[in-house]
Amino acid sequence: MRLEGIGLGYRYGRGPWILRNVDIAVEAGEIVGLIGPSGRGKSTLGRLLAGYDKPEEGVVRLNGKPLPAEGYSPVQLVFQHPEKAVNPRMRMRGILNEGWKPDRAFRASLGIADEWLDRFPHELSGGELQRFCVARALGPATRFLIADEMTTMLDAITQAQIWHAVLDIARERRLGLLVVSHERSLVQRLCSRVIELA
Ligand SMILES: Nc1ncnc2c1ncn2[C@@H]1O[C@H](COP(=O)(O)OP(=O)(O)OP(=O)(O)O)[C@@H](O)[C@H]1O
User: Fold this and answer.
1) Could you give the ipTM of this predicted complex?
2) What is the pTM of this model?
3) What is the residue range of 190's domain?
4) Which of 14, 40, 146 to mutate for ligand 1's pocket (most ligand atoms within 8 Å of CB)?
5) Which residues form a coiled coil (predicted)?
């Protein structure tokens, strides 16, 4: 299985081109880093690959086909700010079960405590909330995970716990990971290949 962007071009409205002629591919089981200076378009590229936005030029292909237009997406995106990724009026149990139903063992692997399930998002810390967003993105139908500064805001221990769990799951299920980060050291530690948006 292969996720690829071919000849991607994107700009916001009539603004300047953010990305042009970008080719990128991630294979199943591969952990690839994406680094580059701030504002270069890393998050934009992640959003295109996850199908959140449509490229103005080029195409995104999953095994040679367009991403499915509806239903649970096999390409999941987790970004830096979990509070922007959840419905503030839903309790965590409902948020977690939006795409699939992680069982207790799965929740425990990501350090999600049972007593958090009945809380609202604002009643959790950023790290606690991000654990839910990661769990939600790792349903059985997920083939690729795009982790866009997924643990940047978190302390070192939480960062390590989340990555430990994600890497275990990725290995077990041969997921492809695209790790978007400012932190060159994190990318070098996790990834077998690094793409630099210069
Ligand atoms: N919704 C938007 N409307 C207009 N311009 C945008 C929008 N989102 C991003 N941009 C611009 O697109 C460019 C690329 O942004 P993007 O967030 O993809 O970069 P990045 O490489 O991920 O940056 P960072 O490392 O700082 O997160 C930036 O110049 C940004 O200002």
Assistant:
1) 0.95
2) 0.95
3) 2-196
4) 40
5) none
